[in-house]
Amino acid sequence: MSEEYVLQLEHIRKEYPGVVALKDVTLELRKGEILALIGENGAGKSTLIKCCSGAVIPTSGKIIVNGKEYDSMTPQLAAENGIAIIYQEFNNVKELSAAENLFLGRPIKKGIVVDKKAMEREAAKAFEQLRIKINPKTLMKDLTVGYQQMVEIAKAIQQDAKILIMDEPSAPLTSAEVESMFRVVERLRKEGISIIYISHRLEEIYRLSDRILVLRDGEYVKTLQTSESHVQELIKLMVGRELTETYPPRGDCIDKSQVVLEVKDLTGNGDENISLKVHKGEILGLGGLVGAGRTELAEMIFGAAKRQSGQMFINGKEVNPKTPREAIDTGIALVPEDRKRHGAMLGISIKDNINMPIYEKNSTLSVINSKKEVATAEKYRENMAIKTPSLHQLMKNLSGGNQQKVILGRWLAANSELIIFDEPTRGIDVGAKYEIYKIMNDLVEKEGKAILMISSEMEELMGMSDRIVVLSEGKMTGELAKEEFNQEVIMEFASEARTSIEEEKTV
Amino acid sequence: GGKSDDGGSADGDSDKDSGGKEKIGITIQSLKNDYWAGVMGKLEELLKEEGYEYTLVDCSDNAPTQVSQIENFITSGCDLIMVHPSDAEAVEGICGEALDAGIKVMCWDDPMENTTANWILDNTALGRDIGEATAEFINANYTKDAPAKVCTIGYPSTKVLLERETGIKEGLEEFCDDGVFEIVASVEGIEADKALANVETVLQAHPDCTIFAGVGAGAMIGANEALLQKFGGAGKIPENVGVITTDVTMQQLESLKAGDEAVRAIVGFEGSSLDTAKACLEMYKRILSGEDFSGDKNVVRPTRAITVDDVDDIIAGM
Amino acid sequence: MKSKVVYQLKDKAIWLVLIFLVIVFTIANPRFVNPNNILTLLRQVSMYGIASIGMTFVILLGDIDLSTGTIISFVNIICAYFMVHMGMNMWLAIILTLLASTVIGLLNGFMVSTVGMPAIIATFAVQTAFQGLALIISGGLPINGFTEKFKVFGQGYVGIIPVPVIIMALCFALGSFILNKTYFGRYFYAVGGNIEAAKLSGIRVGRIKYLVFAISGFFAGLAGIVMLSRVNSGMATAGLGYEFDVITCVVLGGVSVTGGYGKMSGVVAGTFIIGALQNGMVLMNINSYVQDIVMGVVLALAVGFDCIQKKRKAN
Amino acid sequence: MKSKVVYQLKDKAIWLVLIFLVIVFTIANPRFVNPNNILTLLRQVSMYGIASIGMTFVILLGDIDLSTGTIISFVNIICAYFMVHMGMNMWLAIILTLLASTVIGLLNGFMVSTVGMPAIIATFAVQTAFQGLALIISGGLPINGFTEKFKVFGQGYVGIIPVPVIIMALCFALGSFILNKTYFGRYFYAVGGNIEAAKLSGIRVGRIKYLVFAISGFFAGLAGIVMLSRVNSGMATAGLGYEFDVITCVVLGGVSVTGGYGKMSGVVAGTFIIGALQNGMVLMNINSYVQDIVMGVVLALAVGFDCIQKKRKAN
Ligand SMILES: Nc1ncnc2c1ncn2[C@@H]1O[C@H](COP(=O)(O)OP(=O)(O)OP(=O)(O)O)[C@@H](O)[C@H]1O
Ligand SMILES: Nc1ncnc2c1ncn2[C@@H]1O[C@H](COP(=O)(O)OP(=O)(O)OP(=O)(O)O)[C@@H](O)[C@H]1O
Ligand SMILES: [Mg+2]
Ligand SMILES: [Mg+2]
User: Fold this and answer.
1) Which of C47, C57, C276, C271 is nearest to C168 (CA)?
2) Number of domains in chain D
3) Alpha-carbon distance B199 to nearest alpha carbon in chain C (angstroms)
4) pLDDT of amino acid B68
5) Does C205 fall in a domain?
6) Rounded CA gap, A297 and A316, in Å?
7) Cβ of residue D91 closer than 8 Å to a chain C Cβ
8) Most buried one in B35, C158, C167, C240, CB count within 10 A?
């Protein structure tokens, strides 16, 4: 029985303080197959595969590799058992060369001396196979993000692994790079290597995989044969309900006469000549592929990154925020994409997290008005339905969704007029997602705020936006009104700059 | 002994810089110490007055640093190097090289081998003098029935101060009348604030501890302040309470002169800083003039106890 | 909930250590708990305590201040110089001195915040340079001869309580007030815990760093003035090595050197522990060499224990 | 490509500083560039140079080792004790001494890696405790009376080249070899640059930390032996404060205190700069108080300049 499977994860459970990331998940990988792992953001895909490498130690459950049973893994054990993993976050060392990164942790060596020549030779071969032109001697920090990812992929392949796990490997790649990666992956399958492939792009799943395992909200949902499944079915399994229900309805509340935010020819931080307007009561969606420069645009508007040229107006008045503080004071708020790094202050309480931007306002002679402080926190706990026994609870003990609500509360407390949401529902479970959508609706409908929403989830983008602006490679490539929303058109805009650059290259 | 088969000595071209007087290199243990800063300040004045060229450095009580400094003196072509060694043994080698290079070497404090002359201070003997001065005070104020409770204040991480502290204990044994004293504590204190804190603690442990014999200025200042605080200020200190140490600094002398503080005697050397500096310069002149010290190159520095009676003379020369 | 209990216990643990030490020293020498000795002990640690306020803030930010000892020395010299050699009015001298120490702190802040130097290097450079400056000003000689009035800060009493102990208590109260009641305190925790998030919440992190280093300079200056008054003599090396004693107080008090976590009450306990050790070991007449060993071992055990607990919790 | 040029320039910049200093000192006193003085200068920095190898590794990892000075002192005492008081064979004494210093390094490694203490605290605790131990063993007195043979390490010559300079050169070569050629040297960069990535690539980060602290202990021990032979007398405070001199050499050499970036050649330049400053300022007859100021200012400027460049690049 176990002969058939090279890797089995049985009844894996992983708890974090306040969050259960995985509940009783079971996965079985056959020899020579590609198993796709899908699920919404935060479904637990990355957490699950990290259990295979020891990057995450499961709270309970078993990991069986080639018939050998483990409670948990270590990176060394994983390597010994022929498991190679491409992680979603970059895992490279910037000051080392591409070749050395390729062989990180298992260099070619004679005795204790590393054989750089041999590593560079082998690296050149590996890059050749992937049809990428990287000088193996180049330092990692001098490579573009796409190339860095290709090194990661080459690194995993190079390990002669029996089991290859890829967590959204295609995300930062151009379509040509994705193509060459696919060819390699297919060749590896032919050689009998078993692969787990994680991606949000369903067309990739259909192109590559033999079976599909769906996770939702940390739970195992179903395993399907790719050939027998349909897109609609998959989406339903992932989301847990019909898509139409996912987005709460919103009345028409746009006040065209009031432009809350206008940017003109904004350039800098990797973006070029961005011009857009957000009206009172409007949600403007900002679409594009990963790396399109949307976060960069948000940072510029929020004063967190320097802009080179262009103008910005809030309610018709020109503003020039050079720091987040100045942006906040002009009524701009940013709910950042990377919640753990940029949003949540994990070591301090919910109350403090909510009040952070308004402490100065609620202080006399720098002494905090503690009544106001508690009242504010209490108000937004109620408004946002934040699930917590106490406002003094530390942020790190909350679930991702509740953390996101706290951050939202922070910006509502700051009384911002324009709220920028960068991937507002990334890593948030379906229930909390719906609540956040409702909050966004209330914000525009009842409170007359304006929202700029960055999202990589096509459904979310189309479901929530009143208008969509698409970026690609730091340039605006298209703008769609609600009636024009169409997945294919958006994708086309999103890859426009890329294809044109590729065309130039090939010419 | 010093060897001549090495590179340091090859730089023996200690040609005098045109026109000027002789060049003197001085390295001492620490200039961050008030006694040394005081004496060296006076010495610098004298050297300038008489037109000598000189370099004065301190080695922060680090032997390797001092070796390096002497090397640098050899390179810079000094005619005389005076070393106040952090560790005499450590600089013997390099001083030998200096001699081989034709440079005169003088050691302050230790009876070194590879030198032209030594201006020595036997720290154990100095300690014994402190002990003796303390003993005199004890003998005058205490009896066998009510012996004096003594605390010594030292700094046992430094060799010379350790020797000095040992000397103090020996001196007390030797010069005190039978059974009139008892050492109840030995604490560390080279900096005034540390000495102050430790003396305070000792006074808590032994409220009847009245005699404090220490190795230097910091010990005296700290102990004096602690006692002033304990008894409620100047003038309130009982007759039989006393602090006795060595080093001659202005603050110590003023405390002594005041007469109503706890300072009872200071064991000094030639007298004031100026006196010491003058005596030192005299040594330089003797050595530079080519005087032959081969008979006995150890010139012993005099020590004497300064008391209220002659404190004014000393203060005049500070 | 559970983690709250653990934290509470952890915060209390340092007090348990203090109680344990008090018991040991009392058994060894009952005079240890004599009220007089307790007051003496408190007076002895008052300089650590005062300087530890600023250091606590700096460490909460995840930085470190190695210039504390030198600031103490420098202050010793300039304050004495102002009063003795320039005949300046005592209060003016004190104000100017505190201003100077704050400016040195600002210099640290400039290097860390604006230039972007690691705090350990920036403050070490300041330490070295200002040590030299203090020596130049004083010529290596002590400066003394202050007015009787000036002695109050280090030697005076209010009732039976020594003035430096009162100053320390006020400083701790002020430190605790800043940390818990003012928005600056919230900012310190936020910056130390997650500097990126703090920036994006509108905190001007650069200014906060300036502020904290300036505060650290100020309290070091205050400690220097108390020391000057206590010893009644200004020396250019008076504060030599003090920074590590102060850091030890703060770290023993449970403030995380990586920033973001710590309480003033813990620092109070840490300061008292150092005081109890220094005082108790002298009372027990323990050899000064052995005292070093005990200090090292206590620091390693206290912090090590804490780290092991944290590691356990993380898994 | 452009950034490569910047980096190259940056790596070279420290050599330009060195050349600049050499020119200044030569103008001030032509004896400075006398070959004899150069050899003397090299001999003077040899202890810094030797100890800096291990410190470089530690700092590359993003940690710090404050125990270097104490290890030097401790080694001074035990090696002297073995040879003089126990009459041990010189080579055996040296081997045992190096072993002991390596074990102290392992103790640091244990506290940092296994217990999880911040390196600054762990190594400071070791510093304090072993200082006490060295004093106890020596009783505070210097130990001397070594054989003529033993003097070779610190005072001998091969041709005109002093032996300690040769030892330093060999150590730098070895350090460079370890960093550039051996797999664990490459791991140091990986761990210092991205500890998570290193872990997930199967690098046993815990062991690397043990290794690096042990190496740091070893080289500190070697520096201690060279010092002992050079001054021909063992003192329990011989290495006092050396750690900061060594850290200064390493940091001046462009090694990033946050880890992950740095080159041995830079450290060589950093060491020579310190040597040139110390030697040149004495030759120029600069007041020793002023020397402190110059040291502090040079450190602040060199590192500050580097940080500003980095900041510019990041924007
Ligand atoms: N270290 C952690 N502490 C607390 N919660 C965590 C931690 N790591 C992950 N989580 C939570 O576990 C859940 C699953 O996250 P995971 O990264 O596995 O999702 P994913 O399916 O890979 O999502 P994505 O598609 O966005 O990559 C999320 O709710 C996340 O917030
Ligand atoms: N500090 C950095 N160093 C190097 N590359 C960076 C840095 N920050 C961002 N990038 C890269 O710049 C590009 C633009 O990133 P950005 O996050 O703005 O894209 P985005 O459109 O917001 O995508 P998404 O939010 O969907 O990830 C990406 O390729 C990203 O990886
Ligand atoms: Mg993921
Ligand atoms: Mg983004």
Assistant:
1) C47
2) 1
3) 9
4) 87
5) yes
6) 19
7) no
8) B35
Asked whether residue D19 is domain-assigned, the answer is no
Percentage of chain B lying above the pLDDT 90 cut: 44
Q: Which helix (H) or strand (E) holds A363?
A: strand A363-364
Tell me if chain C has a CB within 8 Å of the CB of D23.
no
- What is the rounded CA–CA span in Å between residue A26 and residue A63? 10
**Residue range(s) defining the domain that contains residue C198:** 47-314
User: pLDDT higher for C163 or C15?
Assistant: C163
Q: Does D291 touch chain C (CB under 8 A)?
A: yes
Tens of pLDDT, residues A252-298:
888 889 999 999 999 988 889 999 999 999 999 998 876 788 999 99
Give kind and range of the element (H or E) at residue B304.
strand B304-306
If you measure from the C-alpha of residue A402 to the centroid of ligand 2, how many angstroms do you get, rounded to a whole number?
A: 26
Give the rounded percent of residues in chain C with a pLDDT score beyond 70.
Answer: 96
Binned at pLDDT 50, 70 and 90, residue C2 comes out as very low
| pLDDT at res. A54 | 87
Q: For residue B7, what pLDDT is reported? A: 37
Closest CA in chain C for residue B217: C142
Quote the tokens at residue A307: 């802009």
Chains touching chain B, criterion 3+ CB pairs below 8 Å: C, D
CA distance D278 to chain B (A): 9
Residues 6+ apart with CB under 8 A from A354: A376, A377, A380, A406, A409, A410, A413
* 3-state class (DSSP) for residue D287: coil
Beta-carbon-side half-sphere exposure of residue A124 (alpha carbons within 13 Å): 8
Instruction: Return mean pLDDT, chain B.
Output: 86
Distance CA A334, CA A301 (A): 9
Q: Residue D19 C-alpha to ligand 2 middle, in angstroms?
A: 42
DSSP code of D182? Answer: B
pLDDT, residue D88, reads 94
* Interface test mutation site (partner A, options D5, D194, D263, D310, max chain A beta carbons within 10 A): D194
| Parts of chain A with a pLDDT under 50 | 1-2, 501-507
Inter-chain touch D3–A109, beta carbons under 8 Å: no
> What value of ipTM does the predicted structure carry?
0.85
Give the residue from A262, A324, A277, A317 showing the smallest Cα distance to A299. Answer: A324
Q: Looking at the partner chain, which of A87, A112, A141 has a beta carbon nearest the beta carbon of D200?
A: A87
Asked whether residue C12 is assigned to any structural domain, the reply reads: no
pTM: 0.88
Tell me, using a 6 A CB cutoff, whether residue A458 lines ligand 2. Answer: no
What residue spans define the domains of chain A?
Answer: 5-239, 245-331+416-507, 340-415
Q: Which residues line ligand 1 (CB under 6 A)?
A: A 16, 19, 21, 39, 41-47, 88, 400, 426-427
- Is residue D3, in this structure, part of any structural domain at all? no
Residue B230 neighbours by CB under 8 Å, 6+ apart:
B200, B203
The predicted structure's pLDDT at residue A498:
52
CATH architecture of A5-239: 3-Layer(aba) Sandwich (3.40)
- Whichever domain contains D277, its CATH number is 1.10.3470
How far apart CA A164 and CA A193 sit, in angstroms, is 7
pLDDT at D11: 63
Tell me the C-alpha distance between A91 and A97, whole Å.
13
- What tokens were used for A41? 């953001």
pLDDT-flagged residues of chain D (< 50): 1-3
Distance from CA of C294 to the nearest CA of B (A): 16
How far, in Å, is the centroid of ligand 4 from the Cα of A409? Answer: 21
Highest CATH level, class, for A245-331+416-507: alpha beta
Distance CA A158, CA C155 (A): 74
* A363/C183 Cβ within 8 A: yes
Interface check D274 vs C, CB under 8 A: no
- Identical fold for domains A5-239 and A245-331+416-507, yes or no, is yes
Poorest-confidence range of A107-121, B43-57, B301-315, D149-163? Answer: B301-315
**Number of Cβ within a 10 Å radius of residue A218:** 23
